């Protein structure tokens, strides 16, 4: 791991906050008419993606709040999915800002909170990009955030995750912007 990767892990809550802020900007693009639009996440439309993001943020909130994550996260209720997700994001950041935990359990496996928050930041930023893309208005992941996530992504996405959770990495120039390189590593076409 690079020095930058180690620093990103240590600053996991800050990284999570920046990913959430970026994604909140993408959520501003969502309208009810777009909910059936396809997303870069194979077989998901925008409504499915928003529901998945809500479940993921709920799991991360549980890790901060009660110290463990149940693998069977309950489905979100009805209502406006964007408003629900925005509220969930704010609650998530508040929980981590006030948490003094150094680790939390996920499926019975204890993980350092910097791993959880950094993984959460990666997922939230990638899905923030997915949301904007599904809305027809792609937004690059901010350069500093993308570079920090690029240092961490090989720890969190391996060949075991492909082709199940992620498509194969796409070839891209190392001179491409960090956002594009991160998305290509995750199997997304920037």
TrEMBL record:
Which domain of life does the protein's organism represent?
Bacteria
Question: Which InterPro entries does this UniProt record tie to the protein?
Answer: CHP03086, DinB/YfiT-like, Maleyloyr_isom, MDMPI_metal-binding
Residue span, Mycothiol-dependent maleylpyruvate isomerase metal-binding domain: 30-132
Species of origin:
Amycolatopsis acididurans
Pfam families named among the record's database cross-references:
MDMPI_N
Q: What is this protein called?
A: TIGR03086 family protein
